[in-house]
Design brief:
Elements (H helix, E strand, L loop, with lengths): L1 H33 L6 H22 L2 E2 L7 E2 L3 H7 L2 H32 L6 H8 L7 H11 L6 H5 L12 H29 L3 H9 L4 H12 L1 H15 L4 H6 L11 H11 L3 H26 L12
InterPro entries: ABC_transporter_permease, MetI-like, MetI-like_sf
Pfam family, one: BPD_transp_1
Family: Belongs to the binding-protein-dependent transport system permease family.
């Protein structure tokens, strides 16, 4: 009798013990079913390999050659690397590139954050102001460069038309003003895009959080620092990465505005690469500069993700 009772108890416990295993198997099966199939990644990987990895390998190979762009490349060892790393013009371009990155970020980040937060609200005329803020997104970098070059012309620009002495300065021809003028034009061009990111991020914050803070007596400024900024953490990481890494690739806008001048006042690395390759016909040295840009961009991007903790954030999408 005691043996049959023990056996019956074991039979009752066995299904209970097996239930969690079955639930775990079902949940893991749902995760596998909900996640994207590896086959769907193949087209993207193929596209990335053909248009990113293969050209990068080609650039690395060219950096060890001597080639004028027309004849047959010849192996030159580290000659191109030595020439680039010992060139004061390139080092000045590196300095200007990092300075441009820092200054444009310091200008764009607070403006984008404040404008995005403002446009996410319900203020009067917000829709009209949003349209005006987003106008730069409708124009290409080439168009923006041409327009600003015409507006800032000391002889025929807006300063001469309005007879304003301050605006009649040669902003793009003065070595002391050209760099800072380029910074302002770049910031004007890209602030609307990042404002759009912050606007979308703010609208995802639950309104109940602000209502509770209001009941607790928190003002607008306190709510901004206690609720808005923490909730925008990953949006800030994404926007900052795009700002900083993107600033390493500015070419068309700067080329149209100043072409690297006056002198070398705005000759940043992308322009230095172009001028070395297509003006001086030194494709090997231009390839070295391209490799430096890639390495710096990857390093900055990885450092931002590591320092911000974005590399360990979990997706909130179902099944991800």
């Amino acid at each position: 009798m005691m043996m049959s009772t023990a056996a019956h108890r074991d039979e009752q416990q066995a299904p209970a013990a097996a239930a969690p295993d079955r639930r775990s198997a079902r949940s893991s099966g749902r995760r596998r079913a909900a996640g994207p199939s590896d086959l769907l990644l193949l087209p993207a990987l193929a596209f990335f390999g053909v248009f990113a990895v293969v050209p990068l390998i080609g650039v690395v190979v060219l950096s060890f050659t001597e080639w004028d762009g027309l004849g047959t490349p010849s192996f030159a060892g580290l000659d191109a690397w030595t020439a680039v790393l010992s060139d004061p013009v390139t080092w000045n371009a590196i300095k200007l590139t990092f300075l441009l990155t820092i200054v444009t970020y310091l200008v764009q980040f607070p403006l984008s954050l404040l404008l995005g937060t403002f446009m996410a609200g319900h203020q009067k005329y917000r829709e009209l102001l949003s349209v005006l803020y987003f106008l730069p997104l409708l124009f290409s970098a080439a168009a923006i460069g041409i327009v600003f070059k015409a507006l800032l012309d000391p002889n025929f620009g807006v300063g001469r038309a309005l007879q304003i002495p301050f605006l009649q300065q040669n902003f793009l021809g003065d070595p002391k003003l050209a760099f800072w003028t380029v910074v302002l034009v770049i910031s004007w061009s890209f602030v609307p895009f990042h404002s759009l990111l912050y606007q979308a991020g703010v609208r995802q914050i639950p309104a109940t959080m602000y209502e509770a803070a209001t009941l607790d007596g928190a003002g607008r400024i306190r709510q901004f620092f206690a609720i808005t900024l923490p909730q925008l953490k990953y949006t800030i990481v994404t926007s900052s990465t795009l700002m900083i890494v993107g600033s390493l690739t500015y070419f068309d806008l700067v080329f149209i505005l100043t072409a690297g001048g006056p002198g070398n006042a705005t000759r940043i690395l992308p322009l230095d690469m172009y001028l070395s390759g297509f003006r001086s016909n030194q494709m090997g040295q231009a390839s070295v500069i391209a490799v430096i840009l890639v390495v710096v961009g990857l390093t900055v991007s990885l450092a931002l993700n590591r320092l911000s903790g974005a590399d360990s954030m979990e997706s909130q999408m179902e099944g991800a």
